[in-house]
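Deliverable D4.2, example record:
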Amino acid sequence: MACRPGIANWEKYERLCEKILRYLFVPPLEGPLTRLRGEGGEKDLALFIPYDAPLFWQNIHRDYNASLVIIECKNLSRPVRKNDLAQLSSYLGATHGLFGLAVCRKHGKSASNAMKWLLREQRKLVLCIDDSKITEMVRLKESGIQPERVLDILRRDVLLSV
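Output generated by the structure prediction step:
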């Protein structure tokens, strides 16, 4: 991605992620919408799942009571850890549903363990997609293949590991 990893560039990274996610998933999803989150003016992104969405998104809507996808962008220079997913996890619940997407630069074993823990202990499905997954999804989209296939494989991997 055309943005250096690190907290100093988090706003640039979030704008880049928003453009990429819009390219990948809109349509069939609607958005992304940017909403103010905290008193410090931090933002989170959300994509709405319409009723006529493709099967993958229908399953997310049904299985995780998610009418929207909450997205957290992490421009960290190190792999994502469990603590990094805690913020995203805190937004998931009865109001927004139990599905979230963490977009990060690096994905490591700690993030994989955190995804399993969140699903097992809190019934929340958080999928971490790193630069390599984003690149793979863009290639699929350019080839006329639904990029959600990458998310579906990751979802299945998490489900089978719990």
